[in-house]
């Protein structure tokens, strides 16, 4: 099953080294080699986002994130896992899980 793993950070908290937190380069290498991480990357900050809506046939664009939220998406990974338990295990080894939030969303399966 495929999962979208959203890597979220609190913009008000400075990123800090946490003793015992995994190394991101090791996490990426291990999961790439195992065929679990299919792709992933960092994304630009919410201030660089563009939101697109169509209302009454008119395309409306706004800058920045659509909703006010404390955590902002900093990156993403697409995972191929046997089930949610494996996806949780993989996400729990991501360094951002130690001081940010990892959100897992399964892809729709037809």
UniProtKB/TrEMBL annotation:
Domain (YCII-related): residue spans on this chain: 1-106
UniProt xrefs under InterPro entries: Dimeric_a/b-barrel, YCII
Leader sequence residues: none
One Pfam family here: YCII
Family: Belongs to the YciI family.
PANTHER family: BLL7171 PROTEIN, BLL7171 PROTEIN-RELATED
Record-given protein name: YCII-related protein
Species assigned in the record: Catenulispora acidiphila (strain DSM 44928 / JCM 14897 / NBRC 102108 / NRRL B-24433 / ID139908)
